[in-house]
Amino acid sequence: YPTWKRTLARRARESQVKRFCRAQAIQRRLEEIEVTFRELEQQGIKLEKLLRAENESPADQQTQWTNQLLYLVQKKNNLMTEESDLMIAVQELKLEEQQCQLDQKLRSYMNKEETLKTPEDEKAEQEILKQLVEVVNKRNVLIQMQEEKRLSEL
């Protein structure tokens, strides 16, 4: 087993582990965001009830509650933006994994001697290459979306 093949296999495993760790971190953060959403929702409900019972409270207290409610809405919007970014990152990770798998399949066909390749092998190689290009294009679209979003936020 040549050294370069072992190196490629090791690098593929390392990148797979990195993707797995990133996916776990994203999943944890999505769960944290969900919990925070629920907490913000409960706080918002309490503030709305306090504001609806406005006859019993002074005006400065109502202003304070309104400001707190607006702060909660702003915080929720920020979390929704972060959640959206994380969902894009999840899609990107899936495409990255798919690209890695297709790349490995393509390498196995390309490493075969040309004289030993059957027409089916050549057809499969072309199909994998086509799928690989599609995955790369999808990743490019995601990156463009992220860039447009970043520019619009500026």
Automatic annotation (TrEMBL):
Keyword annotations from UniProtKB, A to Z: Coiled coil, Membrane, Monooxygenase, Oxidoreductase
Coiled-coil region(s): 23-50
Domain BMERB: 13-154
Subcellular location: Membrane
GO molecular function: monooxygenase activity
First-listed, main subcellular location of the protein, grouped into a coarse class: membrane
Keyword Membrane in record: yes
The protein, known as: MICA1 monooxygenase
Gene: Mical1
